[in-house]
Amino acid sequence: MTEPTRGFSTAQVQTGYDSSTPQNSAVPPIHQTAAYEFASLADAADIFALRQIGNLYSRSSSPTQLILEQRVAALEGGTSAVAVASGQAAVAVTLLALAGRGGHIVSAHQLYGGTVDLFQDTFADFGIEVTFVDQDDPDAWRSAIRPTTRAVFAESIANPIAQVLDFETVAQIAHDAGVPVVIDNTVGTPHLVRPGEHGADFVVHSATKFLAGHGTSLGGVVVDQGTFDFGADPERWPQFTAPYPRFGDLVLWERFGIGQAFAALVKTKYVHDLGPSLSPFNAWQILQGIETLDLRVSRQSATALALAEHLAQHPKVAAVHHPGLPGNRWHGLAERYLPRGVPSVFSFDLTEDDAGGTADVHARVARVVDALEVFRLVANIGDARSLVSHPASMTHSHLNAAQRATAGISLTTIRLSAGLEDPADLIADLDRALARI
Ligand SMILES: *Cc1c(COP(=O)(O)O)cnc(C)c1O
């Protein structure tokens, strides 16, 4: 991992862009072109053979995307990054590159629903097996790792319950077994926590959420922290250490080395072959968002804590799942790993009335959710707008009661993602809606 030479706020506004082009635009331009013209046939041949780095075709990359990659790599303290069309694509290409040849993955079961579908369904089709464990159980991680395990995966902060990962414990177990650690830092954001400082080797993002920040554009990024040495056990990692036939027997580890070879494999194989490319326009939108990342996340974090504290003393609220509250199971981990602020995505449970019955519970939840006016009913997080969702009938609707219990959610659990509105308006909105039950 490399230390950023400048502060976080400076990096989020400036890193990766050099305005000394003939057009000298102050702000990064949108390179909206499908392809690039070569100076000569010799140049074209060198770029195609990876002997020379250069723009080729926008499925592989664009200059706007390269700025985004350098910027996110700097914010996460990594050495290189690959930006792709969505967070789903970032998780998929990262794990295909590590475990794609029939490898095994150990993952926390506290996961984003789309990741669960990818692991259980599509990866199973590809012959990649995933073992799910409770992320708070070190013995479960330890005993799930096999000789064929090629990655350990978890989210820095899961949702809707906002569990905080014990990064260092999980990383220690993975590294003892020679396995790299991949962390989805979508909810954490590099402003609140940089998983690379706590043992992560690769950090993935749904840039759709806090990095973009305005709910306008899909994107995903994977950052290589430059910490995992695939060359130390070459038999285990032939995708890096054996000849890469499509490039005339070039060996990625020799040509690119630690901290760069992973991005080269992801781009030249998985993005090139499967095509989940980031559009230059979306890359630019995400860059615009990142310029205010720390300001937005600090504000959202403070607002979320104020909402959580307010809800915790509300008579219609049975429980608040927020690690910023003393007494929360993950409060200690939040104090240890999140000194700059707590997550702005969290949830709370309504009290149940005495009548009981599932239909009554749903009607009770609907009365509250449908009464909200400032909070918007949207299946997204990390937007400038405050968002509400009901996991049991939306993101987690495919779970049965036992699975819901394992995930820590009930029929009355309501998820909030704090936006940038006035906190007083958000509190008044919640109070008005809760008065309906
Ligand atoms: C949204 C999300 C994803 C998937 O990202 P998309 O950009 O929607 O494809 C992955 N992980 C987490 C934690 C998310 O919230």
From TrEMBL:
GO terms for molecular function: cysteine synthase activity; O-acetylhomoserine aminocarboxypropyltransferase activity; pyridoxal phosphate binding. Residues 1-25 are annotated as: Disordered. One of its GO terms (biological process) is L-homocysteine biosynthetic process. Residues 7-25 have a biased composition (Polar residues). The keyword Transferase applies. Keywords: Pyridoxal phosphate, Transferase. The keyword Transferase applies. CDD domains: CGS_like (cd00614). The modification N6-(pyridoxal phosphate)lysine is found at residue 209. InterPro entries: Cys/Met-Metab_PyrdxlP-dep_enz, Cys_met_metab_PP, OAc-hSer/O-AcSer_sulfhydrylase, PyrdxlP-dep_Trfase, PyrdxlP-dep_Trfase_major, PyrdxlP-dep_Trfase_small. GO terms for cellular component: cytoplasm. It holds the Pfam family Cys_Met_Meta_PP. Its cofactor is pyridoxal 5'-phosphate. PANTHER family: HOMOCYSTEINE/CYSTEINE SYNTHASE, HOMOCYSTEINE_CYSTEINE SYNTHASE. NCBIfam families: OAH_OAS_sulfhy. Belongs to the trans-sulfuration enzymes family. This is O-acetylhomoserine aminocarboxypropyltransferase.
